[in-house]
Amino acid sequence: MDWSVQVDGGETLDGKVFLGFDPKSGRIVSGEFTSLGEYSHGVWGVEGNTLTITGHGVTADGDETAAVVTNTIAQGGTMIWQATNQVRGGETLPDTAEYEFRRPAPAAQDAGSNYEHLKFLDFYRGKWRLEGELPEGHYVGEESNAWAFRKNMQRTAGWGRVGDGPRVDYEILVGWDPAKEKVFMWIAGSDGSSSVREGNYDPQTRCLTSRQRSVDASGAETTSMVEEQRLDRNSFLIKFTDVTKGNEHQPDFEIKATRLAR
Fold it and tell me: What does the pLDDT look like over 231-260, one tens digit per residue?
């Protein structure tokens, strides 16, 4: 998490916060670094509508610091921030004033020039469960899709596993090629594989048909036809046909996607 603060037109103070979970204490913890050279460690707790962070740190000059920071959610979408019990270099400091933070309204932003050709991808936004029978075994996975780059592309982050095999994470970018007037897709996997698809969407059948070329980490190439067919509001079917690996034809297979969240 990144933050930035400027007071009365003065110097801007920037910071970065890393959040994690401490399995021993069962608490949320954080590490924070600022542009002044400071760092601190915090332990988080929640009671009602107040988030409390008890922190200890060191300044750029080597002074040890401590503070209790409260963030209280108020009405109207505002948050009240205050630091108390402050200590620096063994000296007790006064509590800060209460500062009010308000979430800004999202800026109006026009969709990118390719959105008109990709708006059918609105259906795919959200989180999905994937399952199917592959020649190698039973496949399960999940993926989440969201718009990116002013709706000029849709980005996917997902994972999949065949049988008891290793989990493979992957990312996908779907966009529009204005020169070829085709939908294209780039896929990269954590197992060193990569794929490229190129095809067309038929709004009458609600089906995206593409030709896919894949290369695994060993350099072996696989080609196939891929159809993504909407079934209903919360599911679609991915059909792989005409599958060829090297010079050998492989069995067709299907993967069904079921919506988990919008």
Answer: 999 999 999 999 999 889 999 999 999 999
Superfamily, domain 115-261: Calycin beta-barrel core domain (2.40.128.20)
Q: Which helix (H) or strand (E) holds 118?
A: helix 115-118
How distant, in Å, are the alpha carbons of 20, 42, 81, 84 from that of 53? 13, 6, 11, 11
In this prediction the pTM is 0.59
DSSP state, 49? Answer: T
Rounded to 5°, the CA angle 86-92-95 comes to 45
Measure CA 103 to chain center: 21
**Euclidean distance between CA atoms 197 and 226, whole angstroms:** 8
Question: What are the C-alpha distances in Å from 261 to residues 122, 147, 156, 174, 257?
Answer: 13, 15, 14, 20, 12
| Domain segments of the chain as ranges | 2-102, 115-261
Q: State the distance between the two ends of the chain, measured CA to CA, in whole angstroms.
A: 24
The residue whose two tokens read 């630091």 is 83
